[in-house]
Amino acid sequence: MGDGDAEAALPQRLNSRQRRREQQQEQQHQEQEVQEAGSHEAGEAGAAQAASTSGRHEGAHGLGEGSPGAAPCGAGTGPAPDGSDRDASLRPGLQPEGEPGGPTAGLEVEPVSTLEPLPEYRSAAVGNYQFEYLDHTADVQLHAWGSDLARAFEQCGLALFNYMSPLEHVRPLETRTYRAEGHDLASLLFGFLDELLFEFNTELFLAAEVRITRFDRQAFVIEAEGRGERFDRARHEVGTEVKAITYSAMSISEQEGDAEVFVIVDI
């Protein structure tokens, strides 16, 4: 190439270099804009996260116990703007009104258990007798009643015999007499039952019927008779041995047309 051709090609080479330089600058400028845009978006995301974290911290610390406007322990974020309870589904057994398909739908609620009612008064009477047995720690309590104290004492004597051997198997074949004394009604009842128990322990005599023939409230004397038979293991059912009569929690009460006694016996 001659000098004239070289001089003619020089402006073209300069223009080509300039264009490449401009293209490179434009490309670098575009890349910088992309980087700046990414940095701006990341900054906005970080700011939002920081604001959210700050809000949670404020709810945990700024609205803690003793702070004005503090929510009760375990409470959610409160009602939603539309008035509904957004946390109802998070609390067991609660369901937002108007939502039949809530978390408790179809579940059966167990009834609240209550204490068993006490048995009806005098409801555990044995057969046609007027006595019953009440549970007591390591012992048993005889509860007997009648139209007056004499009848209640008679029924208490039958309760004593029946506990040692059911009277349904005892025949009234023999007659025995009893006498007891005391200084008040409690000691008189104790002496009467103790006399019946002594007769059984020494003679094995079971009375199917007991009748008081004398009930002296002034001298505190009882005279009675019993009809029954001697205990026979082949015929009579073995009940529970009564070791002694006690004064523990003994109770005697009487009103017009009704009387009752409570006696604990040692077994």
In short:
The chain is 36% helix and 22% strand. The protein has helices at residues 3-62, 149-164, 185-203, and strands at residues 131-136, 139-146, 174-181, 205-216, 221-230, 244-245, 251-255, 258-266.
Q: In terms of topology, how is this protein built?
A:
Blueprint (H helix, E strand, L loop, with lengths): L2 H60 L68 E6 L2 E8 L2 H16 L9 E8 L3 H19 L1 E12 L4 E10 L13 E2 L5 E5 L2 E9 L1
Helix pairs in contact: 2-3
Keywords: Calcium, Metal-binding, tRNA processing
GO molecular function: metal ion binding
Protein name: Archease domain-containing protein
Q: What features would you describe in this structure?
A:
The model is unreliable at 1-11, 57-77 and 87-98 (pLDDT under 50). Helix content is 36%, strand content 22%. The chain is rod-shaped, with a radius of gyration of 51 Å. It contains three helices and eight strands, in the order H-E-E-H-E-H-E-E-E-E-E. Strands 1, 2, 6, 7 and 8 form a five-stranded antiparallel beta sheet that branches. A three-stranded antiparallel beta sheet has the order 3-5-4, with helices on one face. It has a domain at 131-266: 3-Layer(bab) Sandwich (Archease, Possible Chaperone, Chain: A, domain 1). Belongs to the archease family.
Order of secondary-structure elements: HEEHEHEEEEE
- Alpha carbon gap, first and last residue: 142 Å
The biggest beta sheet, please?
5 strands, antiparallel
Q: What's the overall geometry?
A: rod-shaped
